[in-house]
Amino acid sequence: MASAADFSLGTVRTALTPQERFAEFMQARGKRITRQRQAIVDHVTARHEHFDAEQLLAELRSTPADAGASRPTVYRTLNEMVEAGLLKKMVLDGRAVYEHDYGYPQHDHLYCTSCQQLIEFSSEELIQLRNAVAATHQFRPQGHRLIISGICVNCRSKRSTSRQQDRV
Amino acid sequence: MASAADFSLGTVRTALTPQERFAEFMQARGKRITRQRQAIVDHVTARHEHFDAEQLLAELRSTPADAGASRPTVYRTLNEMVEAGLLKKMVLDGRAVYEHDYGYPQHDHLYCTSCQQLIEFSSEELIQLRNAVAATHQFRPQGHRLIISGICVNCRSKRSTSRQQDRV
DNA sequence: TTGTCTGCAAACACTTTGCACTTTT
DNA sequence: AAAAGTGCAAAGTGTTTGCAGACAA
User: Fold this and answer.
1) Could you say which architecture CATH assigns to the domain B105-168?
2) What's the pLDDT at B44?
3) CB neighbours of B56 closer than 8 A, spacing ≥ 6?
4) Which pairing describes strands A51-52 and A87-92: parallel, antiparallel, or unpaired?
5) Is B119 helix (H, G, I), strand (E, B) or coil?
6) What angle do CA B77, B82, B84 make, to 5 degrees?
7) By C-alpha distance, which of B97, B85, B100 is closest to B48?
8) Class assignment of domain A13-103?
9) What residues of B are in contact with residue A139 (Cβ under 8 Å)?
10) pLDDT of residue A14
11) Could you tell me which of A25, A8, A36, A27 has the C-alpha nearest to residue A87?
12) How do the domains of chain B map onto residue ranges?
C-alpha cells in the first residue's frame, strides 16, 4: 500500500496534494469520495483564507458547477478533513473557524476584535518557549494555540470615526 | 463618586476584595446586590479552581445555606463578573470555563486532553514575545491566550492501561 | 448488489431572552 | 413606591444525529 511518509522533498513541502491525501485517508477507512465531498475538498483547497461552516455552505450553494452540499454534509466533511489533517479547527466567538493545515508550517494568530480579521505569524521562539514550559511540568506537548487579540492597523486608524472595540 | 483606581499598593495586590470590587462595579451602574448575586460571588470567590456554569449551578444548589440561584441568573451573574473584571472566560471543548482574574497575575495554560485538567504557568518571555510580534504587525495587543495541549504527568503514567488521547 | 452517503427533520448542548411576579433600595 | 432582579419557559446559536431513500464501488 502507498504511504505519504515515503517521500520527503525538502522542508515543509508535502508529496501528495490535499486531494490525494484526503482520498488516501478516506480509502484507508473504507469511506467514499462522493460528489459532495469532492466539491467541498476542492472548494476549500482552492482558497487559503480562514472560514467557517456557514460561509462554506453559502459559497458552495452559490457555485454554479457543483450542486453544493447540505449543511449536515458540510459539517461532516469538515470533520473528516480535520481528522485527515487537511484542516485545523479553532473556536472564535462561539463558532468553529477552519484553516489549512496540510503542508503549511505551524503558526499562530493575531485576532482583531474590531474587524474579526485573523493575521498569521510564526515564531520559532514560541515553540522553544512551549517546550521549555512543558518540560518544567513534565507535560508532553502535542500542540498549542496562541491568539493575541487586539486592534489591527486598519481599525486603529478608522477607530476615531465609529466606536469599535469588543471583548477579548 | 468613588474610584477603584485611586489606590495602588505595590505590585499585583489589589486594594479591594473581589466582593468589594463587584459591589462597586454594580453600584456604578445602578445594579443591585441581590441574595443570588451575593451567593454566586461568594461561592466563586471561595474557590480558586477553574469551573463552568453548570458546575457552579450544581454546587450552589447543593449548598444548604444560600438557596442557590436559577440557571439564567447564574449565567447573567457570570457575565457581570467578567465585565467587572473578577473572572476571565475561556472556551474549551464547546463550553465556557471561568477562572479568577482580579488580583491574579497574567498566566497561561497547559491543557491535558486526556483528563481535561488545566495547569497554569506564567512566562515573562511570552509577554515580550507577544509585544514584539504585535509591534511587527503594527497591532495593538489587548490580551492573549496561549493553551498548550498535550498529556499531563498523571495521564502519561496510567496511559498504558486504558487508551486515552483526544483531539487538540 | 452491498454498504456507505445524503438530506431532511429532529435532537443537542450551551446560553440568552421575554415576561409576570418578586425583591431591593 | 419605583426600579431592577428572578425564575420559568421558550427561543437562539452552532453543530450533530436518526433514518429512509439515493448512490458509489
Assistant:
1) 2-Layer Sandwich (3.30)
2) 94
3) B40, B43, B44, B74, B78
4) unpaired
5) strand
6) 90
7) B100
8) mainly alpha
9) 110, 112, 119, 148, 150-153
10) 57
11) A25
12) 13-103, 105-168
Q: Can you tell me the distance from the alpha carbon of B3 to that of B112, in angstroms, rounded to the nearest whole number? A: 40
Q: With b meaning 16 or more CB within 10 Å and e meaning fewer, what string describes A12-49? A: eebebebeebbbebbeeeeeeeeebbbbbbebbbeeee
A94 touches strand D (CB under 7 A): yes
Q: Does the CB of A34 sit below 7 A from strand C?
A: yes
Task: Read off the C-alpha cell for B11.
Answer: 505590585
With a pLDDT cut of 70, the percent of chain A lying above it is 83
Per-residue confidence (pLDDT) for residue B66, from 0 to 100: 63
Q: Please judge whether A148 and B168 are an interchain contact, meaning their C-beta atoms are less than 8 angstroms apart.
A: no
pLDDT at A160: 47
CA distance B145 to chain A (A): 5
Residue A152 to residue B143, Cβ atoms within 8 A: no
Q: Is residue B118 within 8 Å of B80, Cβ to Cβ?
A: no
Q: Do domains B13-103 and B105-168 have the same CATH topology?
A: no
- pLDDT, tens digit, 9 for 90 and up, residues B42-73: 999 998 889 999 999 999 988 766 678 999 99
* Distance between the alpha carbon (CA) of A28 and the C1' atom of D11, Å: 43
Q: Which of residues 20-59 of B touch strand C (CB under 7 A)?
A: 32-35, 52-54
Q: Is B4 on the interface with A (CB under 8 A)?
A: no
